[in-house]
Amino acid sequence: MPVPADAVSAHFQNPSTLHDSISPTALPLSPACQKRRAQIIKGAGKVFLRLGYEGASMSVIAREAGVSKGALYNHFVSKAELFTAFFEDTCRTKLDAIESLPRTNDVPLQAALEEAALMLITMLSDAIALGLYRIIVGEAEHFPHLADTFWRYAYARTLGGLARWFEARMALSPELLAIEDPYLAAEQFCMMCQTRIIQRKRFMLPVDDSPQAIQAIAQLTARSFMRIHAP
């Protein structure tokens, strides 16, 4: 039975449920198990990015990670679980940067928005992020859980973090920013950051992705966003 759209929206807009969906395994692992698990995830990531989801077998992943198949299955019962762990681990390390965005008036609003845009553009143009995007878009039709993994661990967390940051910045500068729907604004901001450079890189088209070009897109995104959401 399909889940109502408003229920999905409420789940991903609720910081507590979002945190629960990305929290690590509840059972504490010994240092040795943590090290072995990280070793497996690292090896799996290389295989997924090289062969895609469908092309990656547990045998190849075990060989790349330097473990036996038995050891692999002791940590992950399926390829789907392993891919989710790799995706979650990648997102956790990258998206923590959202929480460090300026939340005081020490950094002017436009400069803070430029910093946020620069962070997103740099993150999305990373080789691993591009590879994961291609895997999910290319194989989600046959493996629907890939889309759910992408939404839960990447997009929903990004939107939630940005929305909360926009709310904090609005409270500081109500004369500069008036956002009616912070989550919609977060989605708009993300889409603006993907123009010109990111979309072309996803399709491996030639594009100027120099620091100067990225900075120019970040500045334009910040200015445009402020005009859209001016009081």
Automatic annotation (TrEMBL):
Could you tell me which Gene3D superfamilies the record lists for this protein? Answer: Tetracycline Repressor, domain 2
Protein name as annotated: TetR/AcrR family transcriptional regulator
List residues of the HTH tetR-type domain: 34-94
Q: Which organism is it from?
A: Formicincola oecophyllae
What are the alphabetically sorted keywords of the record?
DNA-binding, Transcription, Transcription regulation
> Which ranges of the sequence are annotated as binding DNA?
57-76
Domain of life (superkingdom): Bacteria
The molecular function GO annotations come to: DNA-binding transcription factor activity; transcription cis-regulatory region binding
